[in-house]
Amino acid sequence: MRAVAIIALLAPAAALQVRSRPPALRRGAVALAAGADDDATLSPKSPMAGMVLLGGTEPAFWSDLNEETREGTFVCAKDGCNAPLFPSETKYDSGTGWPSFWAAGKDAITVDDGGFLSAMFGREVKCASCAGHLGHRFDDGPINTTGKRFCINGAALRFREGLGDRALPCEDAAPSS
Ligand SMILES: *[C@@H]1O[C@H](CO)[C@@H](O)[C@H](O)[C@H]1NC(C)=O
């Protein structure tokens, strides 16, 4: 019932603005309708979340969370998980088209060893709570931070605004200068 109402509200706006709004925002409207039954304190869940959490990668510049700059916490998008993963303080614009962070929350994620191709393809990053696939970690992050780049699928994340239930950066995440 609630989802239907939101679709009805969005439909006229989407029809009017379909030419002027960038594609990411139109997709956001669809995601909002799809996630309307979920935790109201979280940003909408992407319809692509299931595919990504199982190991897929969303297209570059696909996620609305690329542009999310508010203070808060990015949490796991898997149903029933919602584990706090990345604090907003560690988010930065890597220009890659995927939400990027220079550190994760303490004990929030696991990172595999990547094998001999890790320099090219990164090391796989998973949610420590549910083992859902989040993205990859590379070693070309900002040099004034950890030097790491956590390149994370926006579809694997949801954003919780505000300072409640924080993912706190791990101890080694302090900027080096
Ligand atoms: C790192 O340097 C960039 C560019 O000067 C700056 O925008 C950013 O805030 C710095 N990050 C941290 C964590 O100090």
Automatic annotation (TrEMBL):
Residues 1-15 form the signal peptide. Transmembrane segments: none annotated. InterPro entries: Met_Sox_Rdtase_MsrB, Met_Sox_Rdtase_MsrB_dom, Mss4-like_sf. PROSITE patterns: MSRB (PS51790). Residues 35-162 form the MsrB domain. Keywords: Oxidoreductase, Signal. It comes from the Eukaryota. PANTHER family: METHIONINE SULFOXIDE REDUCTASE (PTHR10173), PEPTIDE-METHIONINE (R)-S-OXIDE REDUCTASE (PTHR10173:SF57). Belongs to the MsrB Met sulfoxide reductase family. This is Peptide-methionine (R)-S-oxide reductase. The lineage of its organism: Eukaryota, Sar, Stramenopiles, Ochrophyta, Pelagophyceae.
